[in-house]
Amino acid sequence: MVGAAYRLFCEKGYLATTMEAIAREADVAVPTLYFTFRTKGAILGEALGAAVMGFDEPVGPEDTAWYVEFQAEPDAPRALRILVENTTPILGRVGPLLAATYAAASDPEVTSVYELSEKRRVEGYRTIVQMLVRKGGLRPGIRVARATDILLVLLSPQLFDALANGRGWSMAECDRWIVEVLSQQLLLPG
Q: Which long-range contacts (CB under 8 A, 24 or more apart) does 151-156 make?
């Protein structure tokens, strides 16, 4: 049901996607969808969670092998590369879903889902920046709060979606550019 909602939201937009259409796409009865999720906003939240954690075998980014590798890497530039190369596939799934909700930005459920997602992203990125600090990484004058803001903007689903889907950049081109700009903005010159 979540995969069906994700596909329809991305294809038709949040506002144009009905619970009936999601049930039809998922091959379930409409009451089953309502019983499971209650509201379209709730299924949006689940679709966003699945976009972050993966649809087939959901796992939070912090529980993946690449995140362990990022944590263990003592070199800040290499750690940043590991982070970006493994975060951009997540951004590639999240970006189209967020774009599908822009027209519904005044919907309280959409706002609630977005605010919770951003809160989690801020907390996660702040933790990542603190790890980069411990790796000896931030350039002079950049504090954790400012570095977190920079990471939030440059490693965002909106920017990735604009580059990959809006401008037609490949994943490798996006990765290279994001690593280069983040390195320039956050890390000690090396």
A: 151/125, 151/182, 151/186, 152/121, 152/122, 152/125, 154/178, 154/181, 154/182, 154/185, 155/83, 155/84, 155/87, 155/91, 155/125, 155/182, 156/91
* C-alpha to C-alpha distance for 104 and 98, rounded to whole angstroms: 10
Closest CA to 39 of 22, 56, 58, 52: 22
Q: Are 186 and 151 in contact (CB under 8 A)?
A: yes
Structure tokens at 166: 């809006």
Over residues 96-127, the pLDDT tens digits come to: 998 888 888 888 988 988 899 899 999 999 99
Which residue, among 146, 152, 145, 138, has the nearest Cα to 183 in the 3D structure?
A: 138
In 3D space, the residue among 96, 144, 98 whose CA is nearest the CA of residue 117 turns out to be: 98
Please write the tens of the pLDDT for every residue from 35-76: 999 999 999 999 999 999 888 888 888 888 999 999 999 999
